Amino acid sequence: MLLSPTRRGARLARLLAVAHLDLWGLPSESAAHIVAELTTNASVHGRVSGRDFRLRLTVREDSRLRIEVTDARGDRLPVATAPDPHAEGGRGLLIVEALADRWGVIPGPVPRKTVWAELDLAP
């Protein structure tokens, strides 16, 4: 799905992800939080005027849900670091790290990057 790099686009991404996961019969609570954090980051830190971000959900053969968010700011790679304790933001990737079984970043193709997270699905 291509979505506008706005807070509204991030909210719509979360709603659409939950709807798709429910349709597929998959649990959506952790995935919804991960989608919310990654798409908010794409709309705030990965925003380039006139360029959308992409959300992709896939269920892999090895029983993993993969969430990918691609934005147009490949020059700004995310890092999960502890923010100032008094800061209002900066905890999104720490949430992703806590909820996901794995996560990472794939640079390119220029000027893009993809931040991904995987959840192991219970049999």
TrEMBL record:
Q: What positions does the domain Histidine kinase/HSP90-like ATPase occupy?
A: 9-103
Protein keywords = ATP-binding, Kinase, Nucleotide-binding, Serine/threonine-protein kinase, Transferase
**UniProt xrefs under Pfam families:** HATPase_c_2
In alphabetical order, the GO MF annotations are: ATP binding; protein serine/threonine kinase activity
Kindly provide the name given to this protein in its UniProt entry: ATP-binding protein
Q: Which organism is it from?
A: Streptomyces finlayi
